[in-house]
Amino acid sequence: MLLTISTTAPPATDLGFLLHKHPDRVQEFGQSFGTALVFYPEADEERCTAALMLDVDPVRLARTRGRTSPDFSLGQYVNDRPYAASSLLAVALGDVFRTARAGRCDARPEAAARPLPLTITLPALPCRGGPELARSLFEPLGWRVEAQAVPLDPAFPEWGDSRYVRLVLHGEVRLADALNHLYVLLPVLDDAKHYWIAADEVDKLIRAGEGWLAGHPERALIARRYLGRRRALQRTALARLAELGDEVEETLAPPVEEEAEPQPPGEEPPPVRPLSALRREAVLAALTDVGARSVADLGCGSGALVADLLKRPEFGRIAAMDVSAHALMVARRRLGLDRMPDAQRGRLELFQGALTYTDDRIAGFDAAVLMEVIEHVDPPRLAALERVVLGQARPGHVIVTTPNAEYNVRYEWLTGHRHSDHRFEWSRAEFAVWARAAAERYGYDITFRPVGEPDPEVGPPTQMVIFARAGREQEGVR
Asked: What residue spans carry the Acidic residues bias annotation (predicted)?
C-alpha cells in the first residue's frame, strides 16, 4: 500500500526536515506486520514528494491478528491488506512520522507552524460509504477532495464499482494536522481495524483529533467507526469532546445523586446544558454587567464566542485573535466571513497573534476575554501574558476562565488534565493566588464567579475572575 505527500512551498525540499526523513535515502522501519519504507520519488526546490510504502507480510499479520480477526479458512492470508490503505497504514504513519505529527521541527520551526500547499495521494483506499463519505470527512477540514471509485474490472463496466476509492487531497494545511487527519480517518473510511480496540483508543483519538475533531460535523460517525462501534468507548469519547470543544452539542452527564429529587407527574427533567455553552453564557453576562461595547476575544479558537458576540448589536467592535492559523481558518468558515453583510463584517477584526508578545491590535478595548486560554500557556510564560494583556493592552476589564482542577474527580473517565495541551490546571486556591498577584502588579480589582453548577465538595467545573482596572467605574461588578 502506498501514500504520497507532495508540496510546492519553496524550498520544497524542506519537507524532508518536517518529516525528519532525508530525501537522499531510502529508510526502512520494521512493523509487527511488515516493513514500512520512506523514499522520495522527486525532491527539488520547486516540488518535493515523500512516499510511505508499506510492505505487509500476510503470515506475520495473521500471527499478530486481533481478537476480532477471523481464524478460519484462507481469509487470514488472502485479503486486501497488503494492497489497500487501512489501519495498517495509519499505524505505520503514526510510528514513522511520530515527531512530524506532533508538529515539532527544530530545523524549520516556522514551516512546521504554518499551513503548506500539500497534495496527498492514496491510490487504493477501502471506503465503506464511497466517494461521498470521503468528501464529507475531508472537506470540512479544508481539503479539496478528488475521490474516484475504482471499478471492479475496467473490462466489465457492468459489474459496477468496488468498495475502493482513489483519493487525492489538495489544500493549504499544516503538515502535522494533515498527518493526524490521515491517522484518524483512514481506519474510519475502512470501518475496520487490524488490532483489538482497547480503552486507550479513546486517548489516541482525542490526541490526534486535537484542534479539529470537536468541531467536525461528522464527529459522531468518526468516533463510532474509529472505536470499532463499541458504544461505551464512543460515549466516553463524545463526552470528552463535549468538555474540551466549544462546538459540540453533546455534554457530560452530571454526577448521579443517590436520591434524585422526583419529578412531578407529566414533567420532563430539564436538559443538561453543555459546559462550553455555560462558559459562553457566563462570559456574555459578565461583559453585559461591566457595560462593555468593544471586546477582544484573545485565544478565540474556532470562533464560538465570537459568533455569540456578533448576535448582540451592543458589541460594536469585536476583535478575535488566535495563535493557530488552522483555528482561524475554521473560525472564518464557521462565521461565514465571505458571506457576512458589510455592516456586520465591519464590526469584526480577525487576526493571528501570540499573547506573549506586544501587539497594538489588542489595545483600546473596553474588555478582553481569555476563555480557557491561560492553561495552554507554559507557566514561565504567564508573566509575559500578564504584561501584554494587563500591562500594555490595559482594557477596562479582563475576563478569564479556566478549569477547576478540583472538579476533575467528578469525571470518572479522566486521567490527567482535561486536555492534552493543558500545561497546568489550577485549584480554586491556586487560581486565586495567581489572580490576586497579577491584579496587584498591574492595578486591577478582581471579582470571582463560578461557572457551571457548583459541587458542594469540589466547587464549580470552571472558575472565572473579572479584572477591573482600578479607578474605573465598576458597572455592575462589586
From this structure: 250-261
Residue given cell 514528494 in the structure block: 49
Range of the domain at 330: 275-469
Supply the CATH number for residue 128's domain: 3.30.1610.20
Q: 477, 290 in Cβ contact below 8 A?
A: yes
Task: Spell out the alpha helix ranges (H) of 83-164.
Answer: 87-96, 98-101, 109-113, 130-138
Answer yes or no: do 300 and 430 share one domain: yes
Q: Which amino acid is at 104?
A: R
User: How does pLDDT run along the chain (478 residues), one tens digit per residue?
Assistant: 789 999 999 999 999 999 999 999 999 998 877 899 999 999 999 999 999 998 887 665 555 554 444 444 444 544 555 566 677 888 899 999 999 999 999 999 999 999 999 999 999 888 888 899 999 999 999 999 999 998 888 888 888 888 889 999 999 999 999 999 999 999 999 887 766 687 778 888 988 888 888 878 898 899 999 998 888 888 778 777 765 544 333 333 333 333 333 344 444 445 556 788 899 999 999 999 999 999 999 999 889 999 999 999 999 999 999 988 878 888 888 888 888 889 889 999 999 999 999 999 999 999 999 999 999 999 999 999 999 999 999 999 999 999 999 999 988 777 788 887 789 999 999 999 999 999 999 999 999 999 999 999 999 999 999 999 987 544 433 3
Q: Are residues 451 and 315 in the same domain?
A: yes
Same domain membership, residue 184 and residue 61: yes
Give the integer Cα–Cα distance in Å for 283 and 308: 10
Contacts of 149 (CB under 8 A, 6+ apart): 130, 131, 161, 162, 164, 165
CA atoms of 337 and 395, how far apart (whole Å): 26
Cα Rg, the chain, nearest whole Å: 25
- 321, β-bridge pairs: 298, 351
Alpha-carbon distance values, 264 to 256, 257, 261, 269, 270 (Å):
19, 18, 10, 9, 12
57: left (phi over 0), alpha (psi -120 to 50) or beta: beta
Amino acid occupying residue 220: A
Residue 231: other Cβ atoms inside 10 A: 9
Q: Which whole-number Å values give the CA distances from 372 to 70, 73, 408, in the listed order?
A: 46, 54, 15
Asked if 10 and 119 sit in the same domain, the reply is yes
The grid cell for 315 is 458589541
